[in-house]
Every structure is written in structure tokens, then in C-alpha cells.
# Entry
Amino acid sequence: MYTIMGITGQVGAAVARTLLKDGKKVRGIVRDRARAAHWEAQGVDLAVADYQDITALEAAFRDTEGVFVMCPSNFAPSPGYPEAHQVVAGFRQALEAARPPKAVYLSSVGAQHPTGLGPITQLHLLEQEASTLPIPSAFIRAAWFQENFQWDITSARERGEIASFLHPLERKFPMVATEDIGHLAGKILQQEWTGNRYPEIEGPDRYSFLDAAETFSRLLNHTVRAVTVSREKWAPLFEQQGTAPDRTAPRIEMLDGFNSGWIDFDPRATEHVRGSHTLEDTFRAFVEKESR
# Structure
């Protein structure tokens, strides 16, 4: 049996699907059992545990062939990342006590750097802490999620435009579908290795926001254009979206990191994987879902 965190989310669900398809048993860690009823119907064992419940996490990590670990998303962390430090310390304590045979972690492109990452700093902290555990570990450094564009559907459909924080519009960035990330994690969990691994993953091609606009245009059957959001407008826009004024800096730092090229794959990496899902594959899935 393999233990999966985040099974009700996109990446965790993809990990679970990969393992179930391969005939493996799965235990899913959830905070609300009702939200995972469909997984229980598929034979998944559910373990109820909060990210901060170390005792419950330890129990869920025990008696398993391997675990998939991921931090909760937080794009507006407190200064100094105290939330991430607490979560990562809890993970370490639970994993050190349970000693599963191996662990696979969701990390990010750029997580090799200690600074200039914004919210990705939380995954750098995870790598630093978990890499010292006496457990074979694999930290999957994933590219920009293709699914990030799902928040642009309404604008693309109603106004014929999508907003770009990545500059310039024609620059192609590594992007990846969450299904490909989960598939890779599920396959790695079934492998044997020693020490720490840092596999990187991106999609079959690199894409720009112009490519994204063209893809929306094809799927929505009308012209969609990409529009640059100037940097001085970022903080006010994030505040309008609900981010506290003193919490906008990390997200801006992350975007600056992508635009400057600082946040990129590690040239020293020895494992680089390309997924199979194109941007159009991913867009079609969530455009069709919204149209139902």
C-alpha cells in the first residue's frame, strides 16, 4: 500500500490514479472524509489527518511501501514563512518516526535556490529538511502548471483576453500538466533507489502566453489575445483579489524570478522528464468541464 497526501487535489489524485491503474493499494490522507467518498468507493483506504496533526500523519505513514508528500498551497505567506517552517518540521517528525521505505515529494522548478523564489521558498525549505532524513527521497521539481490557466477561462470567453504576468508575451516557459506530475510520482514510488533524487518535469513543449491565447482561440472559436499586466499594477491587483497588502511581496518576487530566468531548472540535474500532455490537451479538459 502507498500513502498519498493531497488525494482530493489535482496532483495527488493523479498519483492515486497511476497507482490504482498499476494494481496497487492506496491510502489517501484527507481532512474531510466526505470529500473523498468517491475514492473510498474505488477501494482507497482513507486516513483522516490535518497537516499539523503529527500523530495522525505518523500513523498514516506507517505500514506503507512509500509515501507521496506535498505542502499545502500558500501564495500569501507570512514574512519569514513561519507556516511552512511549521508544516515542514511536522512532516519531518512524522516521517522520522514512521520510517516509510521511501518518499516522493512535490517540489518546484527553482527550488534549488535559497532566495529569490517567493512562495517556492516553501518547497526549498521542504527539500532542505527532508533531504537529511534516513529515507530514500525523490523531490519532483515541476514546471509552471498548465492548469494555472483555468482561472483565465472566464476572461477568455467573455472579454477575449487573458492577463499575463510572465514577460515578454512571446517568451516560452517550461509548463507541465498536473496529470503528468502525478503519473511520474506514481511510477517513482514503485521504484527502488538510495539517497536523494531531484527529477525535473515539464511538458512535451514549452509555451508562451501567446501560445496560450492561440489555444484558447481554437477551443473557444473566437479570438483571444494575451495582454501584459505591467509590474506596477501587480500589487494593487493582488490586493483587489483579496491578498493583504503586506502579503503581496512573495508572489511578486516569484514572478520576478520567472521573468528574470532565476527560477529555472537546475543545470546540474541528471533526471529530466517530459510529460505527454500538451497545452491544448489540458485546456480542452477544463474548457469542456466548465461548459457542462
